[in-house]
Amino acid sequence: MWLQEGKDKDVAIIGAGPAGLSAALYAGRAKLSTVVIEQGVSGGQAATTHWIENYPGFPEGISGPDLMQRMEEQARKFDAEFIYTSVSGVSQDGKGRFSVISGEGELTAGAVIVATGTIPASLGVPGEDKLRGVGVSYCATCDGPFFRGKDVLIVGGGDTAIVEALFLTKFAQRVTVIHRRGELRATKVLQDDAFKNPKIQFYWHSVVSEVVGESKVEGVVLKDVRTGDTRLVGADGVFVAIGSRPDTGFIETMAKTDERGYILTDDRMRMSTRGLFAAGDVRAKSLRQVVTAVSDGAIAAVEAEKHLSEVKRANPE
């Protein structure tokens, strides 16, 4: 069987990033039968982060894969089950229970926690995947401190790109913004701050056509979108900030979202449908970090336990 204890669970957690793993730990400790469904590998984006310096309790830092492995081991210690497959849909029956449709079949649960995170937009160029985590990053807040005194590039021209460029100036010697247009899309105040910062320079009308390096980033090949001319630009790091989207396609008919598609919840992680919860980066929130995802997951699991208790009291066998 693809599930050890049958296909009917107290809690189904969709996504095994920091939020999902934290939720699994808390649900398991509460003696709830718990399954975590992950379409990739446990840890989510955090598992691709080379080094995490700002997670409490690790003053020397810890690699993203190691931290995520520890979280998974801790959740498994409390009997959370893991299956690795995709989820295509979630529905609710007339009694308030949920059906989760996955690539391995259907299971039911009394509560569902959505912790699928976001999907960062990638450049889709040669060298990007090979050097991901060793110079290619999608999170300046996570990885910026590793580039003290270095030259870095940031790809993008919107608010996120410019905020991250300004943040990187705290560490990097030089920050070069690469934008395919001749002007930024960021808000005026951010543009003004960037143009005034002596550490920031710009390559306009340019796109990255290749990330160069063997064991680490050494530079990129830039292509001028007007002329087609290319040039090699040396750099120690490449930060990609061309957008991301929440992974909510399977739940969108049951979730209320903001204008960008992030799931709306209250401060107890409850979605608009009773028994549904969201945690981590998939949720509309102000800060997306491992530590906030872990907090969300813990709250969601505790609230799921409360929900199940309320349902049981209202419908005694």
Structure commentary:
Helix content is 23%, strand content 26%. It has helices at 18-29, 64-77, 140-143, 159-168, 188-196, 290-314, and strands spanning 8-14, 34-38, 81-84, 87-92, 98-102, 105-114, 118-120, 136-137, 151-155, 174-178, 200-203, 206-212, 219-224, 230-234, 237-240, 244-246, 276-278.
Keywords:
317 residues, alpha/beta, 5-stranded parallel sheet, 23% helix
Helix fraction, binned, reads: 10-25%
The major sheet is characterized as: 7 strands, mixed
CA-based gyration radius:
21 Å
Q: Count all strands and give the number.
A: 17
Number of helices: 6
Structural category is alpha/beta
Shape descriptor reads elongated
**Average pLDDT metric:** 93
Query: N-to-C terminal Cα separation, in Å?
Result: 28 Å
List the helices and strands and how they pair.
Elements lengths: L7 E7 L3 H12 L4 E5 L25 H14 L3 E4 L2 E6 L5 E5 L2 E10 L3 E3 L15 E2 L2 H4 L7 E5 L3 H10 L5 E5 L9 H9 L3 E4 L2 E7 L6 E6 L5 E5 L2 E4 L3 E3 L29 E3 L11 H25 L3
Parallel strand pairs: 1-2, 1-6, 2-3, 6-17, 8-15, 9-10, 9-15, 10-11
Antiparallel strand pairs: 4-5, 5-6, 7-16, 12-13, 13-14
Helix pairs in contact: 1-2, 1-6, 4-5
